[in-house]
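As a next step, the fold was encoded as tokens, giving this record:
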Amino acid sequence: MYKSNSDLSLYSAGYEECTPGYSYGPKIRSYHMIHFVLCGKGEVHINEHIFHLNAGDAFLIPAGKVCYYEASRENPWHYAWINFLGINSQMYLYQLMTSSDDIYIIHNLDALKYKEHIFDILSIQGTDTSQYFRANGILYQIMSMIFQDVHFQESSWGKISIADEIKFYLDNNYAEKIKLQDVAKAYGVHPNYLTRIFHEKYDVSPKQYLMNLKLKKAGRLLTTTELNISVIASSLGFDDQLSFTKCFKKYFNISPSEYRKKHRIYPDSHSKLP
């Protein structure tokens, strides 16, 4: 309780040398996490996002998001992590997320330098106040390093347009049944204005952007999981499998079942999907 009322506070840290196929989750946490991949490969699912990661990647897990991750069976990863919370912790994590093209993933990090700092935390003995401050001091060092590595621009953070904010919202919540009228109301703008500024910035309406995002993620789920098509449809906010299939076929010019057969990805395959 006291940690959550601070600005930023360490919750825990750890290190894992995973065995082949080792998995964790699905799980929802009440704190934020950053995992640094030190070597090997693995797969991360955050809500319906799926990522294949290698050494030098880090994945960010916001509080309240469903997450599952699994080590490669051929080349299982080792990773180190930090967990944190606090009044400004979500803002800090979102600043990192908006500085990365993949939102939840940061690429090309020197993961070993983060490992050293995390191991410093793990080496701390005792629970007295001085050790608490020492551990949090290391957390602040880690956060400073990662903000520097992603080239975070402080000047641009406060200048994010409404269109950018809405895109970020859609990117994070596309799996839900989103009504653009509710989004417009939440941002204090008229739905017509929302559509106009979004189209001006991204050359597509927010409604179409959301649908494209859902269908691209559906394609990824079809080719990387054994989930039933009806389950994929409901997990992405479609009312039923029929409406999902109709939209999918219109976008890809092929049915979901045919798409799955044609583009199936097997473990440790990194084929690119549209």
